[in-house]
Amino acid sequence: MDADCGLPGIAAAIAEPARAAMLCSLLDGRARTATELAALAGVAASTASAHLGRLARQQLVECLPQGKHRYYRLGSPEVAAALEALLVVAGTPRPAFRSSAPTSLRQARTCYDHMAGGVAVSVLQTLLSRGWLLQEGRDYDVAEPGLQALAGWGIDVAATRGQRRRFACACVDWSERQPHLSGALGAALLDAVIGRRWVVREFDSRALTVTPQGWREWLAPLDLRPQAPA
After folding, report:
1. Of 92, 118, 90, nearest to 25 (Cα)?
2. Are 105 and 176 in contact (CB under 8 A)?
3. pTM recorded for the entire structure
4. Distance separating alpha carbons of residues 110 and 117, to the nearest angstrom
5. 201-225 average pLDDT score
6. What is the per-residue pLDDT across 123-140, written as a single tens digit (0 to 9) for each?
7. Of 38, 61, 90, which marks where a domain is finished?
8. Whether residue 107 sits in one domain with residue 86
9. Which of 46, 69, 90 is the last residue of a domain?
10. How many structural domains comprise the chain?
11. Considering only CA atoms, which of 14, 58, 52 is closest in space to residue 36?
């Protein structure tokens, strides 16, 4: 009965056209700012803020504060599944995400002291899917199988954990709008791949280049291959 009572509120939140447009734009798994969602929905910023508040109260979206930005993403995989089912019924195609980031920065770059870009996002997804990292909200911990894998990359997990900072956490990627790894573990990963010449820094730029050795020794064993950004 509780679910029955809650259903009308959720249905009403989804049914408003601007809110529906916002939710559908988040189906690609990428987070977006309120300004971007306002533009996608064709509403003013103040109106978008009110809509996002309504969606957040219904737990259809969650807010990810990061520095001066506030990103929004779908509240759970169950929300995504429900929206997908409704889109099938409606016969509506899923909207595609198009990044405006320069190609040189989109594939790999630094984000303060850790690695960002498509490569970093893919590495984090692989670490999670293989069970090497475990997710706890916006934080991560290293599972037993991950200890050996990370040690093989030259990362001392115990020493990294002992630092006086957040150990491992999600950082919303500027170009990909999906999480990459930050915190002490993210910094240790960047140091390790640069130290092994798997990745090199570009001169006078945040861009990073994965070397042929890096693709061969680091990313290929993770079943990752070079890809041109979409």
Report:
1. 92
2. no
3. 0.73
4. 8
5. 93
6. 999 999 999 999 998 899
7. 90
8. no
9. 90
10. 2
11. 52
pLDDT classification of 229: cutoffs 50, 70, 90: very low
* Structure confidence by residue, pLDDT tens digits, 188-210: 999 999 999 999 998 878 899 99
Residues 6+ apart with CB under 8 A from 41: 17, 18, 19, 21, 22, 25, 48, 51
Calculate the alpha carbon distances from 180 to 110, 114, 210 in Å.
11, 9, 16
**Which residues, 6 or more positions from 55, have their beta carbon under 8 angstroms from its beta carbon?**
13, 19, 22, 23, 61
Domain span at 206: 103-222
CA dist., res. 109 & res. 51, Å (int): 34
**2 pLDDT exceeds 60?**
no
Looking at residue 5, its pLDDT comes to: 57
Entry field: residues in the chain: 230
Q: Are 130 and 168 in contact (CB under 8 A)?
A: no
Cα separation, 213 vs 15, in Å, equals 51
Mean pLDDT of 4-17: 84
Judge whether 42 lies within some domain: yes
